[in-house]
Amino acid sequence: MPHPAIRALSCGFALACSSLVLAEVEYHDSELGRISVEEVAHGLKYPWAVAFLPDDGAMLVTERPGSLRLVDAEGRLSDPLDGVPQVYAQGQGGLLDVQLSPDFHKDRLVYLSYAQQGDDGKAGTAVGRGRLADDRRSLEGFTVIFEQRPKLSSGLHFGSRLVFDGEGRLFVALGENNQRPTAQDLDKHQGKLVRIEPDGQVPQDNPFVNTEGAQPEIWSYGHRNQQGAALNPWSGEVWTHEHGPRGGDEINIPQPGRNYGWPLATHGIDYSGSPISEALGESAPDTEPPHHVWRQSPAISGMAFYDAERFAPWQQNLFVGALLDRSLIRLQLDGDRVVHDERLLKDLNERIRDVRLGPDGYLYLLTDSSKGRLLRIALADR
């Protein structure tokens, strides 16, 4: 039975409203025990990503139509922050990922990825950064540090996730704009994982820095539409995942200079039911196989490793959101190897867009809808 708990009322800071209301905690079964689901905030418009501010429990949440909002520790939802770039909010485009600088306590820099329109009307993924104002109502001095070149999207396959590695380099997981062959073209950013310095400069040890005609930011290529990226806390390697076509969603551990196959190799077919015309099969010469693959696509988005102490049964697990499958996927790991797949929270019947591990050891989810929610997930009996 639902158990009542005191939770916060989501409202604009400018509105006069009670900060607390009586809400319910939902419980769901899992192999490792009951899972509790608490609503932290609601009324978000197609939320895409969440990042945790230090010290007071507040969070930044992106909304795909173009707003960045602050959710305070009581769940109150701010007005949209000023200073956010104009975005191309068509199709799958809009305001996408958010990450804090590794030195946020010193520089207060917030990184955003978003769909950016070019002069010819086509769009691509861009990344920029700005300083979060002391009153947390705006980003100051927002500057673009990376632009996907060329711009080829008419509204599809932007990616994109941002993740800093242990050396402070920024990885940007990109889509191929639904232009399949471009994922194999080193003169284009489409279908690539790129690696840049925090200010957008190119690290001189990137694999294609000295390759004539190649975009020097490229780390790996042959990707389709990457909507998950996270730093493995045990190995220090960046993992990404990507949507396959009709089947073939996959996880990769991208290595420098390697080709991950799309569209030459895939475990999926076209949405029409026909084979992918460029595909040679499930493998192709000089390409890397996926680290893990779903032959039936859950439509994955968001990804978080669990290494907190709060819930010991979740240790060595990887959590992935699912849009089509409307679930939270728990992948049990043995080292890097995926040894078990469990689908959680299917009774919620909500598209899971983002999954993050909070500094408090709880998991936080964003649901993808015009009335999106920010949820806090726990093992209820721990």
Could you outline the blueprint of secondary structure elements for this entry?
Blueprint: E1 3-8, E2 20-28, E3 35-44, E4 47-52, E5 59-63, E6 67-71, E7 95-100, H1 104-107, E8 109-117, E9 123-132, E10 139-147, E11 159-164, E12 170-174, E13 192-196, E14 218-221, E15 225-231, E16 238-243, E17 249-252, E18 292-294, E19 300-306, E20 317-322, E21 327-334, E22 337-344, E23 352-357, E24 363-367, E25 372-379
Antiparallel strand pairs: 1-2, 2-3, 3-25, 4-5, 5-6, 7-8, 8-9, 9-10, 11-12, 12-13, 13-14, 15-16, 16-17, 17-18, 19-20, 20-21, 21-22, 23-24, 24-25
Give structural attributes.
382 residues, mainly beta, six-stranded antiparallel beta sheet, four-stranded antiparallel beta sheet, 43% strand, disordered N terminus
Summarize the model shown.
With 382 residues, this protein is an all-beta fold.
Query: How many DSSP E strands?
Result: 25
- SSE-based structural type: mainly beta
Strand order of the largest sheet: 1-2-3-25-24-23
Distance between the termini: 18 Å
Mean pLDDT: 93
Protein model, in words:
- Helix content is 1%, strand content 43%.
- The protein has one helix at 104-107, and strands at 3-8, 20-28, 35-44, 47-52, 59-63, 67-71, 95-100, 109-117, 123-132, 139-147, 159-164, 170-174, 192-196, 218-221, 225-231, 238-243, 249-252, 292-294, 300-306, 317-322, 327-334, 337-344, 352-357, 363-367, 372-379.
- Strands 1-2-3-25-24-23 form a six-stranded antiparallel β-sheet, with no helix packed on it. Strands 7-8-9-10 form a four-stranded antiparallel β-sheet, with no helix packed on it.
- The model is unreliable at 1-22 (pLDDT under 50).
